[in-house]
Amino acid sequence: MKQSIDSFFESIHGKRIALIGMGRSHMPLIPLFTKYGATVIACDKRNEEALGEAAEKAKADGAQLSLGEHYLDDIDVDIALRTPGMPFWCDELNSLREKGVTISSEMEIFFDICPCKIYAVTGSDGKTTTTSVIAEMLRADGYTVHVGGNIGKPLLPEIETISPDDVCVVELSSFQLISMRQSPDVAVVTNLAPNHLDVHKDMDEYIEAKRNIILYQNENQKAVLNYDNEITRLFDLSCKGEVIFFSRNKKLRSGAYLDGNTIEYAEDGKIFDVLDIRDIKIPGMHNVENYMTAICAVWGDVSVESIRKVAREFGGVEHRAEFVRELDGVKYYNDSIASSPTRTASGTLSLYDFKLILIAGGYDKHLDYTELGDKICDKVKIAILMGATADKIETAIRQSSKYSENNPVIIRVNNMEEAVKCARENAVEGDIVSMSPASASFDLYKDFDARGKHFKALVNAL
Q1: How far, in Å, are 280, 384, 414 from residue 424 at the CA level?
Q2: Handedness of CA 288, 292, 294, 299 (dihedral sign)
Q3: What's the confidence (pLDDT) of residue 312?
Q4: Torsion region of 418: left, alpha or beta (phi above 0 gives left; psi -120 to 50 gives alpha)
Q5: Distances, alpha carbon 207 to alpha carbons 137, 253, 443, in Å
Q6: 33, 54, 155, 271 — which has fewest CB within 10 A?
Q7: What confidence score (pLDDT) does residue 342 get?
Q8: Dihedral over Cα of 49, 53, 56, 61: its sign
Q9: What pLDDT, on a 0 to 100 scale, did the predictor assign at position 200?
Q10: Full-prediction pTM beyond 0.85?
């Protein structure tokens, strides 16, 4: 049973609430919680100098600060909200649990009190584009849509503006899902492959975190699952409500599938011609999958005409095979979101029928690059490698059965400036240069957004 917005705010009056991590999901909560009589303690491992304006704003909004290496040692609170990237079973949170502190998160509270229908999307790849396409389809059909979660912004600070007739479209990471005990009205799982194994203790924990998106649904709710992915197909066994599959490879009796160039939707023995994939503005077969996913999610809520309109007009999401510029006949693309080997392999390296110049490498999430090595040999003529995973990627290329001397040419660089300069010097008219790292950004950047913006700035300055 959902809690009402009013009863939630009444319940936090007089409570001491710790916001662990002073990032984008927590800073807007400070004025909201203090407005309703809570005492807010903003906690962060960084000191006040490192936090800069964030610390000043937190204090101005009414928060107390607990900062530095021992920032959680002596806090006295009733509730603690963890930042999504904080491991759920870390020593600091376990210590708070032992003291009787309720551990929650911005997204858990949002799910508890959101008054309208929630569509939520998770997966290893394709989450953000699928979330965006679902939102665009709903908007095209006249809904008031609120988009957030792992994409863009937290939604709890906006809760007072959300009405029962609106819809929310939420992207959820495994870090958010690991503690979720409510599932959305429409749960979408795009695919699952090894990811974030630097934070999760193993692949099983990662899968179980993702499973929470469907685990708490009831018989009136809907799950959208990828039939072509063995892990997500088996999520069917955990579903209590309606299950809708999508597939590129199999004609389904119920759900969306690809028949030649047409996305079909099967329902109650009827086949609907929904969308010619040649009308999808954003390129690549992975985006055809994203559209099939979105169609399953909104089917029954959105007209076919609105689906087709979005396909023709939606230009894609920043950092996802994003066209930057053409210079001297060379096209440059920013695919900074590709923070795993599978994302680079199924995204950038599947878009083109000829060999390209690839900029790759970054923070090591302890993933296997073996299959990516084969794909690079098939689709890349020059691999410009940087960052902590450069050794792994080069080893995967050289150990591939498809590798031969200088196929591809491998060039090592130290940073993005050198990578862009190297690409410029080696590219010839007709080439594609894509920055698709197959790795996280944290060795050199705060996040993939900062990495992508830096790449674009360097390319635009050539």
Answers
A1: 30, 11, 16
A2: positive
A3: 95
A4: alpha
A5: 29, 27, 26
A6: 271
A7: 87
A8: negative
A9: 52
A10: no
Mean pLDDT per segment of 10 residues, for the chain of length 462 residues? 89 97 93 97 94 94 95 94 86 93 95 97 90 97 95 90 97 90 96 64 82 95 95 92 96 95 95 96 88 98 98 87 91 92 84 88 92 95 96 96 94 97 97 95 90 97 96
Q: What are phi and psi of 393, to 5 degrees?
A: -70, -45
**Pairing state between β 255-259 and 262-267:** antiparallel
- Can you give the pLDDT at residue 196? 52
User: For 433, phi and psi rounded to 5 degrees?
Assistant: -110, 125
Cα separation of 304 and 295, whole Å?
Answer: 9
Residue 202: what pLDDT?
67
Residue with tokens 């708070």: 96
